[in-house]
Amino acid sequence: MADPNAYSRLQIGLHWTIALLVVLQLSINAGVRDAFGDRLEGLGPGLAALAAGTIFHLVSGMTILALTLLRLVVRLRRGAPEAEEGVPPVIALMAVFAHAALYGFLLFMPVTGLIAWFFASEFFGTLHEIGRFLLVPLIAAHALAALVEHFVLRNDTLRRMLRYTAR
Ligand code: HEM
Ligand code: HEM
Questions:
Q1: In the CATH hierarchy, which fold is given to the domain comprising 9-162?
Q2: 126-139 confidence digits (pLDDT tens)
Q3: How far is the CA of 15 from the centre of ligand 2 (A)?
Q4: I want to staple 7 with a disulfide (CB 3.0 to 4.6 A). Which of 11, 14, 28, 124 is the partner?
């Protein structure tokens, strides 16, 4: 592995691009919910009739899927840095599980969304909705943990995800 002490620029860029798109997905979905309701009732709609917010949700969600697959390839080939020194082992272990769960959701949300939309499946629409209820608190805990490491434990965990620092 090239430099297991730091995330690469590509890994950092992918983390924040995907994080931004996920926050937008969680905010911009009223249009797709309406359009999906119409689809379940067999009402259409043709792609041309879709509102901008709906198209954004579909395209951005598929972008998240593509970027996540790229990110996982990079992660498997290059690895990721160990927990910073001084991080209690139990917290480091929780981070491992939290990151694995986040990767899981980055696949689960687009896949359930795609199946719901293209196969007009209410069941997968419900899975997609349930995913949202689990993902939001997980992201909140993840961001909070990053801030606690930065301001309370005062280590470089957040810094190394903000800019590349070869050590
Ligand atoms: C990480 C990616 C995604 C996130 C975080 C996300 C998030 C959301 C959220 C929060 C909702 C509202 C759910 C609710 O009614 O409470 C929603 C609805 C929906 N999304 Fe996504 N979405 C993602 C990707 C996708 C993709 C790729 C597609 C399809 C191409 C898609 C299709 C849909 C559909 C059809 C609905 C309406 C489902 C329903 O009302 O039951 N989503 N999405
Ligand atoms: C908005 C606030 C966020 C902050 C402050 C934040 C911060 C961080 C930091 C500091 C790390 C590095 C942890 C370490 O080196 O041990 C990290 C890793 C990670 N973050 Fe975030 N993050 C945020 C949002 C998100 C979102 C929205 C997602 C996806 C839904 C996400 C997914 C991940 C994943 C999967 C990792 C593990 C990376 C790896 O080791 O391969 N993050 N985050």
A1: Fumarate Reductase Cytochrome B subunit (1.20.950)
A2: 999 999 999 999 99
A3: 6
A4: 11
